[in-house]
Design goal:
By secondary structure, this protein is an alpha/beta fold. Helix content is about 35%, strand content about 25%. It has helices at about 45-50, 70-75, 95-105, 110-120, 140-150, 170-185, 195-200, 220-225, 230-240; strands at about 5-15, 15-30, 30-35, 60-65, 65, 80, 155-160, 190-195, 205-210, 210-215. The strands form 2 sheets. A 6-stranded mixed beta sheet has the order 6-7-8-3-9-10, with helices on both faces. A 4-stranded antiparallel beta sheet has the order 2-1-4-5. It is globular, with a radius of gyration of 18 Å. It starts with a strand and ends in a 10-residue tail after the last helix. The structure holds adenosine-5'-triphosphate (ATP).
Length: about 250
């Protein structure tokens, strides 16, 4: 399997806080990897480096072989991202917003318009296409953000705690959409969460704690390594049992 994301020995410090310390990880094409970590583990910092928002103090990030620091345009061309903070323009209609983003990616309208309509159908959002963003439920706003992240047909999808604030049904739905996109187009997915139940569906789990990778393997291997029956118990044991790390 070809690596769509390769992160080698990445470190980042904020003053006296070592937010990330020599973090290495890989996501292969078609692979869903859950990045699990309690609050403050360094997930958001890692995503900021993976998306080129900040540069690491040391180490490297490559997307499909393109180095994020030396060749950001090529690296970002393959990347779709949904950030933790909602980023939908509430004053544009859903369709207008999507067309605007397709234009930003330089997609010709002969390509983007049918693609947008097909994705709206797929995501069950066709009836909302003419609505202003502010009229949508939280779950549907997130779905639009996911749809937007898929518009340019990226090979790697980064989801940074994208289900925060959603009700359980919307969380499950969003995860389903991501799993389907992965299956259909062999996209590599890195799904950051502090909710253990969301990691159950991943092929691989990476546990980040206090800025370092504590585990990288299948959910079953994590349970076996910790001698626990459930992923939640294994994760809590590995990370010192922070209560806020429990499943929602
Ligand atoms: N801009 C900043 N300045 C100073 N310290 C920071 C900054 N951003 C993050 N940190 C610190 O770096 C560490 C990692 O934070 P980060 O937000 O990356 O973790 P996280 O896993 O995303 O947590 P959460 O789940 O709470 O969002 C924490 O100790 C945090 O306080």
């Amino acid at each position: 399997m070809a690596a769509v994301l390769s992160c080698r020995d990445v470190s980042k410090r904020y003053g006296r806080t070592q937010a990330l310390d020599k973090v290495s990880l890989q996501v292969d094409e078609g692979e869903m990897v859950a990045l699990l970590g309690p609050n403050g583990a360094g997930k958001t910092t890692l995503f900021q480096l993976l998306t080129g928002l900040f540069v690491p103090d040391s180490g490297s990030v490559e997307v499909l072989g393109a180095d994020m620091r030396r060749n950001p345009v090529a690296a970002l061309a393959h990347l779709g991202v949904v950030f933790q903070q909602p980023a939908l323009d509430l004053n544009l209609t859903v369709r207008r917003s999507l067309r605007f983003h397709a234009d930003l990616h330089g997609l010709p309208s002969s390509v983007s318009r049918p693609r947008i309509e097909a994705l709206l159908q797929r995501f069950g959002l066709a009836a909302s296409a003419g609505e202003l963003g502010r009229k949508l439920s939280g779950g549907n706003r997130r779905k639009v953000e996911l749809l937007r992240a898929l518009l340019h047909e990226p090979r790697l999808l980064l989801m940074d705690e994208a289900t925060v604030g959603l009700d359980p049904a919307s969380r499950v739905q969003l995860l389903q959409e991501v799993l389907q996109a992965r299956e259909e187009r062999s996209i590599g997915v890195l799904w950051a969460t502090h909710l253990v139940d969301e990691a159950q569906r991943a092929q691989r789990v990476i546990v980040l704690h206090k800025g370092t990778v504590r585990f990288d393997g299948t959910p079953q291997a994590l349970c076996a390594a910790q001698g626990q029956e459930t992923l939640e118990a294994a994760f809590l044991q590995l990370t010192g049992g922070e209560r806020h790390a429990k499943a929602a």
